Inverse folding.
């Protein structure tokens, strides 16, 4: 694969692609109708519309940009990936991170970065409350 | 779990879209509870015609069907006979809405309903609100109510995952025990039996075993004593123990309050044309102009209220 292709950006529109397909792709599982991601191919996710569990369980050095707001548990269990959330995040963003980074441009709800073992997370406003259940 | 939603419209141009917007919000919250779903709609001209008192009721409280099983015409005849003057009835799936001129009063209309339908459940009453309850999947119930065609200035809804009481119509929110008032609740009150004992001692009769009904009667009792909504909710905060996010509405106001721990979710979106509240942000994404709205999570023990 040539450099131009491998350094490209893959756009995934959640208005057309299911959340399960997106997460399978990011977790390097086979997905019908989608080519596997190249080693350094970055991903942009459109139309998250507050969906839960967007971009969870990644274990690759990859850049994932989410164009909008997400629901609960976004970018959970992250290892090595750099995830940028353009909007706000609901409960439990970046839970149980092992390495990599999760940045939220907007606000983050309760339990942000809970039980992290490594990595880096940040947001504009994080609540004082650390505990809570959805 | 349970899901709650509410929409308070500031721009009258949106009134015809209330039902459609509320249906989208309610159905998006069906994953939080699909045992039953109820709504309260303020200002629908067919359900709450001007100069009329209305009482929303289910003819048989034990029914879990999507239809009441009683026709509008049959119910109108039975209620008119019981009241001794004309009553109109509008069908809204499992719930029927009885309508009589305002001067008849809610009490006389409720008495006529219980005489004509001794096993009825009264869902709510007032000059401006229709309260629709039923058992089943939120999407099926929204269809049975005809919710998407409703109009008005304000609506609230609840999708239920039963915890404190049985899955039947009496456990379905909203609880609407005072005129044009209603309350929907995500969470659980822990000391509701103690508070209910105090309210029973004042002569209040409860229609269910549900914890939220106790909260509704508590608020109604304080409002009847002359409190405003904010003062009543301040007292609720100090009286009730538990986890809760509450949406409390009446004919001109809309208020949100969370307990001190605030672990039950809530998102508020404020736009120049509307104020909306939901358990989760995804229930709000279809509202017109959401990208320009101020979106935030309400703080613990702070009362957020908006008035028409």
């Amino acid at each position: 694969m040539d450099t131009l292709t491998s350094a490209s950006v893959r756009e995934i529109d959640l208005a057309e692609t299911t959340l399960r397909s997106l997460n399978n792709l990011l977790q390097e599982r086979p997905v019908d109708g989608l080519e596997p991601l190249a080693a350094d191919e970055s991903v942009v996710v459109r139309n998250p519309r507050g969906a839960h569990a967007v971009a969870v369980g990644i274990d690759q050095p990859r850049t994932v940009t989410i164009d909008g707001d997400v629901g609960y548990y976004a970018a959970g269990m992250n290892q090595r990936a750099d995830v940028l959330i353009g909007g706000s995040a609901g409960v439990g963003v970046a839970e149980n991170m092992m390495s990599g980074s999760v940045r939220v441009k907007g606000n983050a709800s309760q339990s942000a970065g809970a039980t992290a073992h490594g990595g880096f997370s940040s947001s504009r406003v994080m609540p004082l409350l650390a505990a809570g259940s959805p | 779990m349970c899901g709650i939603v509410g929409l308070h419209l500031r721009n009258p141009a949106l009134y015809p879209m209330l039902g459609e917007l509320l249906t989208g919000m309610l159905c998006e919250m069906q994953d939080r509870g699909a045992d039953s779903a109820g709504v309260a709609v303020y200002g629908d001209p067919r359900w709450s015609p001007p100069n009329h008192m209305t009482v929303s009721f289910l003819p048989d409280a034990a029914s879990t069907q999507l239809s009441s099983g009683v026709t509008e015409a049959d119910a109108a005849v039975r209620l008119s006979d019981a009241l001794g003057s004309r009553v109109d009835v509008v069908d809204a799936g499992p719930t029927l809405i009885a309508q009589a001129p305002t001067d008849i009063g809610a009490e006389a209309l409720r008495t006529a309903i219980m005489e004509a339908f001794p096993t009825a459940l009264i869902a709510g009453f007032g000059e401006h609100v229709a309260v629709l309850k039923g058992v089943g999947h939120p999407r099926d119930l929204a269809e049975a109510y005809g919710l998407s065609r409703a109009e008005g200035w304000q609506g609230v809804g609840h999708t239920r995952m039963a915890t404190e009481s049985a899955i039947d119509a009496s456990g379905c929110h909203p609880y609407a025990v005072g005129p044009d008032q209603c309350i929907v609740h995500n969470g659980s009150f822990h000391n509701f039996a103690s508070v209910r004992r105090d309210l029973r001692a004042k002569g209040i009769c409860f229609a269910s075993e549900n914890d939220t009904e106790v909260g509704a009667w508590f608020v109604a009792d304080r409002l009847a004593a002359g409190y405003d909504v904010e003062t009543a909710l301040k007292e609720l905060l100090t009286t009730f123990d538990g986890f809760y996010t509450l949406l409390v509405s009446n004919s001109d106001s809309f208020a949100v309050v969370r307990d001190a721990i605030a672990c039950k979710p809530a998102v508020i979106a404020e736009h120049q044309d509307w104020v909306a509240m939901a358990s989760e942000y995804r229930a709000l994404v279809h509202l017109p102009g959401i990208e320009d709205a101020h979106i935030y999570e309400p703080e613990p023990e702070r009362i957020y209220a908006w008035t028409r």
